[in-house]
Amino acid sequence: MSKAAVDHIAICGSGLAFEACLAALARNLDPGIRITALELEQEQSFDPLYGTVTPPTAFDDFTLWGIDEPELLLRTGSSFCYGTFYSDWAGRLGWTQAYHLPLPVWDGIEFHFYLAHLQASLEPHLVSAVCGRAGRFAHPPADPNIPLSRAEYGYQIDPLDLADLLARKDLPGNVTRIRGEIASIEVDEGRIRSIVLSDGNVVDAQFFIDATGPSGRLMDALGNGFEAERTVGFAQSAQECDQLGSALRLVQEKPYGWQSQTHLQGRILNFALFHPDQAGAVNPALGSHSGALSGQLDLGARAEGWRGNCASIGHANCVIEPLTPAPMILLSRDIERLLQLVPITTDMEVEAREFNRLLGDDIEHCGIFGRAFYEVENAPETDFWRQARARRLPSKLERKLEQFGSRAILVSYDLEPFNKEDWTILHYGMKRKPERSHPFLDGIDMPAAQRRLDEMSQAIRKLSLKVPPHERYLTNFMRYLEKQHAR
Amino acid sequence: MKIEKVCILGGGTAGWMTAAGLSHKLKGSQTEITLIESEQIGTVGVGEATLPSIRFFNNTLGIDEATFMRETSATFKLGIEFCDWGRIGDRYIHPFGEFGEKIRNVDFHHYWTRLRLSGDASRLDDYSYPIIMSELGRFQFPDPDPAKIEASFGYAYQMDASAYARLLRRYAEANGVKRVEGKVTGVEQDSETGHVSSVKLESGASVAADLFIDCTGFRGLLIRQTLEAGNVDWTKWLPCNRAIAIPCRAADRQITPFTRATARKAGWQWRIPLQHRIGNGHVYCSEYISDDEACDVLCANLEGEALAEPNQLYFQTGRLQQFWKKNVVAIGLSAGFLEPLESTSIYLIQEGITALLELFPGKDFRASDADEYNRRMELYFERVRDFLILHYIATERADSEMWRYFTNMKLPDSLQERLDAWLLRGHIIKYEFGAFLPPSWIAVMAGQNLLPAHFDRRVDALQRRELVELAAGLKARISSSARGLPGHLESIQAFGASTNMTA
């Protein structure tokens, strides 16, 4: 294969992954590279599967896509997010999976070891959890003396609104946006030569990006098949609401699967994920509100995210359940790694290998975090849970569970998307109890540590009363932004 | 059931670091710590040059920095200068710090590559604050404001490792560690479990313990000789197997804030300036040079009067298959050996201590504790190994048999992929756990003339004029700031860390 410089990229697809990736390429790449954006008509949107919460890195991720916080809040119905409250999980568990900066280290011993030893609960010591549960929100201040500075936040979003916002953005001169239908994809020696459209037009490029959603049409054309893990049904609907709810998404376990409520400006977004045989049980629960979307699809991933001269983005390479912010994390990381690896020449083996390595790690690490939600004793005897637990526990998760169960040790792997705090909160939320205490707590004055814990939780509770309700904070913030905008 | 007795075998750097680390954590508990060492057995005194992580170790123990420096005749270390590695006559510094600042979320070295490919002659080094400081022989502590270029580095020390062991011995003994003088002549094992139950001393005395920590150096008295934990041999990748060391006198102006490693025909030579002397050594491969010749090479390259007789060391690169087996944990040279090219010996001791403290066992010695310990240590050793190999293979040298051996060597896949990504487009394959983060890889690859053919495609989004201005501004800021700093010895004096001062 001769090595020609890559100066023409084609991105093909629709929805959030397509718009976000296009925006990121247009904004960040060398303007000398020509980009053809082929937008396909969508038969069905699977964008609800990106979920309705972002991770705390969203501020930076969205900046890469050309969206800043004021724009997000003013032009979509988004609101703030301190995490997710899981209710009745496995029929009995309830906890706030809050976004939080590293927990303190006292006398060289990490905070969670004290909690485990004193059998104290974690949640009263997480400022983002306490404020979120009390329906309150404020931006975390920079001053480290204020407990709220330890909170982190993301956004509650409607992925379809986000895609719309991105689609309305102006594109620079090196981008040509066209709409069409794929008639055929011409493949030559494991590489895409061109996409022929039903109107007879041909899109050719040296490098293609598949953002066609779960159908992964370019990936399929290259013979890079999707490995399905399980089939699920989903439904989403919106319900008008005058009062903005809390800065926490609510997830509840249901006999059919789980359901979430996301608190957006002016509406509540209801979402359900369920066993495909139980669609009938879902609809009444979700209500028949406007703009309802539903469907069925396979969760799983493709063997490779990048094959030949084509990289895939978002659902085109992996569909994971939006129980956690994992789908948005994977999408953001896909875009980031693609930006880093936009090929130099048509010989792109090195880039493909690195993209696939990074993607493989991320899918594995997001996968084990999601899988850990289903690893409980006396799991509910429902089809949904049986299906979710059917696969053998991945060895990395086995090690994490074993080490935490043995002595609250948090095993970490390179560049995991869910950090130590996320795992700590999850283990405590799921009431995993370490068998043994930290070996060096013997020499520690435990009554003093208990007092310290009490003081910490009291300070957080006191502070939470001063933090305004999410609704009021957002309204005032929007008013301020509008004024700024008007200037 | 809690461990009641810990026995550390060996009192070199590893032994006393372990004793200090453990006694700090176990202070006030019922656990007794005994350290057995013999004055008849010499210590290697590893790691005169260190990595910045040693500061964390000392801080945790609460050791005052100036006191530590005075007692170990320590100097500051901003990096390592490598001479004659890529080509004879080349030199570069591997700094403890960043190159430049990110622009629009893209690492600075990509912008530098763009400038270089368009004919700009600036060195990547010109954008590194610690390199410019080193070249000027200056030192200042990092600025507390992380946004400043003056905060873009870390530092370590060059120190007398034997003095460090003495300081830690005092610290550990003050914390209740019992030191037993004696040579081990026998080992008792539990007939059922195979655990080491006690060691017998020449005096006839016997020391029993629940947990043994083997710090006996290359011999690995318990871990290798008794428990046969198995060896993973890395000779084919890192064939140097001997070293000879001689300290020499130094003039003040030779006290550089960096260590030097000069490549030789059959190995390399270290130069570690302390306050009162310079540590020198020649690491070599016995297949390509005799011991006498190696000694001659070293002696011919001493810059001052020799202060001791040559000290000869024999080793084999590699690591244990199991760092923790049954009730014995190996820390230090008993765990494995990697040549001191990047000052990693003390770092690996420290990682061993940290992991042991986190996974400190009970009397039941659960397999899961040892298993997790072994996983971590294996990762740390292997990542250091790959980084060391890089120094030998990123070269155009073919002037001796050793260098020709490296030219023809097949690399570990992980290293080959790293090189491919770098050479093609300056992409660094990142990891989170390990001693050497991206700037270290960049320093060695670029320093040894492995230069990327292209750069990240976001870089061209910046106008050339804007880039030229940004780069020139950064270079000028670094240069003018570094020129305003005090000299290295002056900083040691001002900090109250000079050995000529009384505490």
Description:
The complex is a heterodimer of chains A (487) and B (503). Chain A is 36% helix and 24% strand. Chain A has helices at residues 15-28, 58-65, 69-75, 111-118, 127-133, 159-167, 217-221, 279-286, 326-341, 349-372, 383-388, 395-407, 420-429, 446-466, 470-486, and strands at 8-13, 34-40, 79-81, 83-89, 93-98, 105-106, 109-110, 154-156, 175-180, 182-188, 191-197, 202-204, 207-211, 226-240, 248-254, 257-264, 267-274, 293-302, 306-307, 310-312, 318-319. In chain A, the strands form 5 sheets. In chain A, strands 5-4-15-16-17-14-18-21 form an 8-stranded mixed β-sheet. Chain A has a 6-stranded mixed β-sheet with strand order 9-2-1-13-20-19. A 3-stranded antiparallel β-sheet of chain A has the order 10-11-12, with no helix packed on it. In chain A, helix 1 crosses helix 6 (159-167). Chain A starts with 7 loop residues before the first strand and ends with a helix. Chain B is an alpha+beta fold and 503 residues long. Chain B folds into 3 domains: 5-48 and 160-230 and 320-383, FAD/NAD(P)-binding domain (3-Layer(bba) Sandwich); 79-157 and 410-488, no CATH class; 242-314. In chain B, 35% of the residues lie in helices and 19% in strands. A 7-stranded mixed β-sheet of chain B has the order 5-4-14-15-16-13-17. The mean pLDDT of chain B is 95. The A-B interface holds A 28-33, 64, 108, 339-342, 344, 350-351, 353-354, 357, 399, 402-403, 406-407, 409, 411-412, 414-415, 436, 439-440, 442-443 and B 2-3, 25-30, 60, 104-105, 357-362, 366, 368-369, 372, 375, 417, 420-421, 424-425, 427, 429-433, 453-454, 456-461.
